[in-house]
Write a structure and sequence with these properties.
about 350 residues, alpha/beta, Rossmann fold, five-stranded parallel beta sheet, 17 strands, about 35% helix, binds flavin-adenine dinucleotide, binds uridine-5'-diphosphate
């Protein structure tokens, strides 16, 4: 008899399992995959190179609370991610910064001049309602077309005007020369990898882990008081309110007989190829190796549900499931799929810590 059955051993499920176990609850955590860690799972491939099975995962957060919580389970390696975009035959810093603008337009502007240069190009809107407007309002048409429109169509099979403003607003526009992808206070990678961190989280006498186990198949057999569900919420409710749309990816890994494949960790291809970006893992992990492994991300309609798709219609569709949740006191939803939110890892951890506090203060 368990106090809690937790479905999904990714960040959401593992944080909740660990917190509940620490509070004295007996927890069973199940995952249908053959490993823990969810989409953050990493492993050494056949060449001995540490890779991320579900695409590159870079940890960054402004939350001291999240950073300190995870620090109980891992040491860290300082790592600042850098990305170049391949546009018109040049490799240019992404997010767009002063260097991008100087090289793209063939000018030589200082930071103040970049600001007024952009001010002349910006479109103005009374209210920003979608991802196209969010970028046009910052940089105008040329940069929008070359850096955002094609990439977004490829990634989502939707144009920026069809997506919530929050999607493209993830990418800042800078007038200085800062070429880091993120500017968070904490930009770190787990020193021994994500999977090792998850192993330490779940290594608790009150936690039992069951892999290759689909919740649907065991729900009648296992006895538990409360359920935490971090899989897709529509699947939990047998799609009674219709399927929620997700975007998937195919990952093509390649190992090359060179120690370095490309000049930075990630190169984005907004306007060419069927993949969106190429990432070289050794930059992320700091591993030294004579060979190197890269991954190309090919967006697809079918496959594992990796991304909720942030549109106004989909937010409404999710609201219809929220109405279902209210009927069950002993079932709690968490994580990117359980709450249908385009969340980064740190946001999922913060959300799970909040849910834990709510559960304990009832
Ligand atoms: P998941 O990690 O998806 O875990 C859910 C788990 O539930 C899965 O393991 C699944 O197998 C299991 N499950 C589902 N249904 C069932 C069932 N019926 N029975 C049993 N088990 C079930 N975030 C960042 O902060 N930085 C990044 O650089 C970054 N890069 C990303 C790159 C890609 C390509 C993707 C797809 C995501 C990226 N993210 C990144 C986001 C990050 O992956 C998520 O925020 C985080 O992994 C979500 O954790 P979760 O526990 O909610 O979900
Ligand atoms: N984006 C873009 N061009 C880029 C990078 C990002 O148009 O070179 C847009 C695109 O819509 C993408 C979103 O910004 O889906 C968020 O990018 P991010 O790198 O945060 O995506 P993730 O790492 O979550 O896939």
């Amino acid at each position: 008899m368990y106090d809690f059955l937790v479905v999904g051993a990714g960040f959401a499920g593992s944080v909740l399992a660990e917190r509940l176990a620490d509070a004295g609850k007996k927890v069973l955590i199940v995952d249908k995959r053959n490993h823990i860690g969810g989409n953050a799972y990493d492993f050494y491939n056949e060449h001995g190179i540490l890779v991320h099975k579900y695409g590159p995962h870079i940890f960054h957060t402004n939350s001291e609370k999240v950073f300190h919580y995870l620090s109980r389970f891992t040491e860290w390696r300082q790592y600042e991610h850098r990305v170049l975009a391949s546009v018109d035959g040049q490799l240019l810093p992404m997010p767009i910064n002063a260097t991008t603008i100087n090289k793209f337009f063939g000018v030589n502007l200082n930071h103040d001049q970049v600001e007024s240069f952009l001010a002349q190009r910006r479109n103005s809107f009374d209210r920003i309602t979608n991802s196209q407007e969010v970028i046009l309002a910052k940089v105008g048409t040329e940069l929008y077309e070359k850096f955002f429109r094609g990439y977004t169509k490829k990634q989502w099979d939707l144009y920026p005007e069809q997506l919530d403003a929050s999607v493209c607003a993830r990418i800042p526009i800078r007038t200085n020369a800062d070429d880091r992808y993120f500017t968070d206070i904490y930009q770190v990678m787990p020193a021994q990898g994500y999977t090792k961190m998850f192993e330490r989280m779940l290594n608790h006498p009150n936690i039992s882990v069951l892999l290759q186990t689909d919740y649907k198949k065991i729900q009648e057999e296992v006895r538990f008081n409360e359920l935490i569900y971090t899989g897709p919420i529509d699947e939990y409710f047998d799609y009674v309110r219709g399927p929620l749309p997700y975007r998937s990816l195919r990952f093509d890994f390649e190992t090359h007989e060179v120690s370095t494949y490309q000049p930075v960790a990630t190169i984005n291809y907004p306007n060419s190829y069927d993949f969106t970006r190429v990432t070289e893992f050794k930059y992320l992990t700091g591993q030294t190796h004579a060979r190197t492994t890269i991954v190309k991300e090919f967006p697809t309609a079918n496959g594992d549900p990796y991304y909720p798709i942030p549109t106004p219609e989909n937010a409404e569709a999710y609201e219809r499931y929220k109405a279902e949740i209210g009927k069950y006191d002993a079932v709690h939803f968490a994580g990117r799929l359980g709450t249908y939110r385009y969340y980064n890892m740190d946001q999922v951890v913060a959300q799970s810590l909040t849910l834990f506090n709510n559960l304990m203060s009832r």
